[in-house]
Amino acid sequence: MQSKTFVVPNIGCDGCVKTIVNELSQKPGVASVKGDKNTKVVEVQWDAPATWDGIVETLKEIDYAPEQSLMP
Question: First vs last Cα of the chain: how many Å apart?
Fold first, then answer.
């Protein structure tokens, strides 16, 4: 299982977090998505067939691109 914790600057409310969780949870291989509207931090855990590049692409498509990785 792989995981990344990252900042999404466009998060402004619980609805933003819900959108991110809903969209990423639909991707095959994504096991867990957690977000915090106050810190704008998102944590994603996944296995194949999901990839980090695919997760980033989905986030960009829904206008919640990650800014920086906090942890590997």
Answer: 12
